[in-house]
Task: structure prediction
Amino acid sequence: MTTSADDPRIAHALDVILQLTSGNLNARATTGDRADEVDGIITGINMLAEELQNLFVSLSTARADLEVRVRERIEELSQANEYLRHELEHSARAEAALQQANAELQRRAGELEQRNYEMGALTELGDMLQVCATAAEAYQVINQAARRLFPGDSGGLFIFSASRNLAEAMSVWGDAPPEERVFEPEACWGLRRGQAHLELDGGASLLCHHVRSRNDLHAYLCLPMTAQNETLGVLHLLVSALNRAEDVEHQLEAKRRLAVGMAETCALALANLRLRDTLRALSIRDSLTGLFNRRYMEETLAREMARAVRRHTPLSLIMLDLDHFKLFNDTFGHEAGDAVLKDLGRFLQSEIRKEDVACRYGGEEFTLILPGAPLETALKRAENLRARAEGLRVQYMGQMLGALTLSLGIATYPEHGETKEGLIQAADDALYRAKNEGRNRVVVSARGQ
Amino acid sequence: MFNVWLGDDGIVRQIWAPQAEISLAQAKESVAAIVRLTHGEYIPLLVDMRRTKFVDREARAYYASPASRITKAVALLVSSPVSRVLANFFLGLHTPKVPIKMFTSETEALKWLKRFVA
Result:
């Protein structure tokens, strides 16, 4: 009897199992024709081996697929991550750039707003200065503008004296205005260099001599004011209002820019005022004697008459004529005659009160308007003039031209005339009488008597 | 290799020849034969594999695939240890989509299949 242990199929099956377990999944056992338990075992082993082999292939394939997928997924994730990182960086850069641009925009908008304000203020200053009738008015306007444009700072407007050897403070402003109110042009670096001079406190090497260092002074500016090729003076700004927490240079530059604009505006306006004064002087002054001319006399007399009527005050008019002037001209020539007229002009100007107005009426004829003077006063003044004129000695080219005498006619409002024309006519009539009665005398108008 | 016919009881019978070794081609042929017989109607099937020697893996995979789903239920008739092993693979490793059961008694198998006859 053959036992299972003796069955060679068992050994064969065992051998196949050993091969399978050692990794050879191709190993298969051969079955017999008996379809008995051993064949069943072998068939099962073979089928399990097939399934195992197939499973192994499937697993290998799946694993390979999975690895590919994982690699692809990792690659995708890596790319996505890279893209995201790039986007984040780009976004961060864009945001930073945007913030920077926004800050820059805000700063520029602020600057623009400030510039607009400054331009507006300077335009307003220019407009105000244009309608100023006198330099004093202009100085007042400049003072107000400086306080508004440079709040917290101090300063002064220095204008050259007529001799141009001194700069005098015409207007000062602020809590700590300049201590030196008059200085020589050489004391100012700005004037010496002919350009804006900005000095931080502590820069002693270039500190102007007219500036004294102070604890509250951060910096100062000296801006020469030049217009129509002439330096009129200097705008001096003492900077106390600076925010140390912010860009000091930027603040100083802003103040310098504004101060330059202000200095230019002021210089132009003051030069125009001077020009206007010069033209006006030319239009109302007699060029030979320096006295007011006839047109001005008539305007002034009309104004003073109106005031006298309004105030019920007297007003006197003296007309005077240089005796024998024709003889001077004929004897010594016209230039000598002009010298006499010039001296007489100086004489009259020196003899009158501040409120009186001396005019050259024409030729050798002069008028004196005496506002508020009654006839009695006018008569005394006229007589005094006549007497003092006798003492005048005119020299021309080293030659004495002889004694001067004056004939004077007086008319007083309201006694001798109530209109300008009437008063002039009355004074002229009196003068005519003085001439006719022998010259070198004073005659009061006979009108109304 | 096999015989197949439709019984009066409305059950298809398929009997494999002794020592049959079923390959993929034969598996496909067996399914085609049943379809021809039933004209595509789903009918219970009795498979006599008592003397079958071997069913290779491709054939087994084919039987488990949707392409071979042509019946309402399958009864596997076995006797030898080999046939039981083969049948077990159908029942275990390749999960059937229709009711399938292994029998050693033809009577019991037919009795079970009759439950699925329309």
